Structures are given as structure tokens and as C-alpha cells.
DNA sequence: AACTCGGGGCG
DNA sequence: CGCCCAGAGTT
């Protein structure tokens, strides 16, 4: 049995496309900074679209814009990015989240430098072979960068297409069901503008709580007519979150240097910097750090840090000590005292930055 | 197919 | 406080 509210005809999709493009010309976002510009080379414009697509994964436009400007200033070309140190790339990404994106982007730039002479080719399969680029981002580069008819199905497009077609399918089936419709839409006129148009429409009109009274399609929207707007697209099944406690220890010596180290775990916050932390409360300071004299021990307020799948409950301890040692062994691991000017140049986790604000503010 | 990866904004 | 945002890699 069909999960569509009603069958969708080709005429319906063509009419929607026509009106969408008219809407875009008048109301679309035409000033996004990664839009191709004449004072950049064609290769740079493609690079900008690539970069923006990566930054925009699960991240809103307003958040991305300042990061984008900073990034292209530091890394103006793909080859410049490829030749840069990963530490600099992560620093430019600091606070944006999903740090695997930065590592994949850096690896991708080296791949493009070595395999494609520093220029992204107009080849969907080749683009998709670049680290960090999946079907959606590859299609976005093909359509927006090269003006080729490739369909994207990101969150915005899925929401728009689900409502236009009245697809009630659950999240997993939805993408497969909508892909043929998405391709049909993209294969009409102005592929690059269409891609931007449908995303702008999804981001500004056909939102989660859509502005149907201003919508050009309200008279023909099957989802609106049958009052299913709140039900389409179907909600995602919420993942169960874990609660984890974290006990960071901020050890500050008489010169104001802090114990600081780079994460090496393969899981979260890979390659980023943080304070040493324990999995339980620090019981005996003198026992854990024999060669230091504790001047002051301050419990900072506990706070929460939320990730997609983890709630961190953080109970920080700030210990001011005197010692002649340049490093401290804690739980069998060696941590070095680091001057403020140094650690501020490295990309840190969000809780670490919050703690730095707390002790310096 | 399910799970993992951040952080910000908004109602 | 819950949900979503221009998703992709791993298992």
C-alpha cells in the first residue's frame, strides 16, 4: 500500500519547479559568500563551494559564514590547504564541531592536489571519491559548481519534496522514495539555480513550522490541503543518549602555565587539545602528583556539555601549585605545563575553552 | 541498517 | 529542554 497522500504527476512537479524558480529570482538568497564570483578563478569558486558544503553539513548558514571567510583567507586555494599543517586546519575549525570534517577536508585537498593537479574535476564519481564527500555533497558541487543536473537530497530538499509529493514514509525509506522526484526536478532548466532555490525555499518558507500563508504553492500543496504539515516529513526516531561524568583537572603552576595535552583517542574530539581529566573525583592530590606543592584547590561550578549522543556532566577542579618540574605524570600519563600563548594557538574542545574562559575571566 | 560524530539556535 | 541543521564514515 502506498504511503503517499496522493499520486504526484509530472505536470505537478513541472509546475512546482516553474513557480519555485520565479520565487527564487525574487526571494532567494543571492548573497551567500560561496556563490561564484568573477574575481576568483573558476577553480577557486569550485573550491569555495566544496568548502561551504562541508561546513554546512549539519550546520546552519549563519554559523558557517564567519568560519568560511576566515578559512578561505588562511587557505585561499586547494593546494594551500593541502600544504597546510593539520593543526592550523583544526584551529580554523575550532568551535564548528564534527571535526572529522576538517580532517577529511584536509586529506581531500591533498588527494585533489596529488590526483587532480589541485583542481576538482567535473566528474561525479571522481568528486565522490574525495574523502568527506558523499552523494549529497558531490551532487551539490556538480550542480552548483558545474551547472550539471544532479539531485541533492539534504534535509531541506527532503522536507520540501516530502510535502510536495505527500510522502509519509519513515526516515529510512524517504530518501529512496524521493530520489526519482529530486532527479526529475534537477534535470530541468538552470540546475545550479534550482539547487540553490529548493534549499532556500526549504530554509526560509517550507521550514519545520512552514510559512504556508506566504507560499506560492499553498493552493496545490497536497500536504497542506490534507492538514498533514506537522506529520510530513515523518519524525526521526530519537537516539538514546548516554550520560557520562567528566572530571577535568586544571593544574596551574606559579608561572600561570597549565597542564595540557593532545587527545589521541580514535573516537571523540580526535587530535584536539584538552586538560587532563579523571573518570572520578580526585581524592588525594598529593598522592597523584608527588612533586608539587598545592597552593590552592578550587572546585569550579559543574556544567553540562551536550553532544549528539552523549550528555557530559563536567565537574572541574582548578589546582594552583608550585613545582620545578616542566611536566607531571598523572594516571601514568605525562602532561606538560604549557604557556598561555602556546595553548591558545591550538584547537581545543568546547568544554576546554569554556574552562579557559572560566579561569581567565 | 544502525551507530558515531559537535555545537549553536530556536520555540 | 528537545529538536534540527546544505551528512558522511564506519561497522
What does this 3D model show about the protein?
The protein has 361 residues and is of the alpha+beta class. It has helices spanning 10-27, 42-55, 61-74, 78-83, 86-93, 100-115, 124-128, 135-146, 155-165, 171-186, 191-204, 222-225, 285-288, 340-343, 350-360; strands spanning 242-252, 258-262, 273-274, 277-278, 293-299, 303-306, 310-314, 317-322, 327-330, 333-338. The chain folds into two domains: 10-226, Orthogonal Bundle (Endonuclease III, domain 1); 242-360, Nucleoside Triphosphate Pyrophosphohydrolase (Alpha-Beta Complex). The protein has 15 helices and ten strands. Strand 9 (327-330) and strand 10 (333-338) form a beta hairpin. Helix 8 crosses helix 11. 29% of the residues are buried. The protein binds a DNA duplex (11 and 11 nucleotides) through helix 2, helix 3, helix 6, helix 8 and helix 9.
Give the topology.
Layout: H1 10-27, H2 42-55, H3 61-74, H4 78-83, H5 86-93, H6 100-115, H7 124-128, H8 135-146, H9 155-165, H10 171-186, H11 191-204, H12 222-225, E1 242-252, E2 258-262, E3 273-274, E4 277-278, H13 285-288, E5 293-299, E6 303-306, E7 310-314, E8 317-322, E9 327-330, E10 333-338, H14 340-343, H15 350-360
Parallel strand pairs: 1-7, 1-8
Antiparallel strand pairs: 1-4, 2-3, 2-10, 5-8, 6-7, 9-10
Helix pairs in contact: 1-11, 2-3, 2-8, 8-11, 9-10, 9-11
This protein binds a DNA duplex (11 and 11 nucleotides) through α2, α3, α6, α8 and α9.
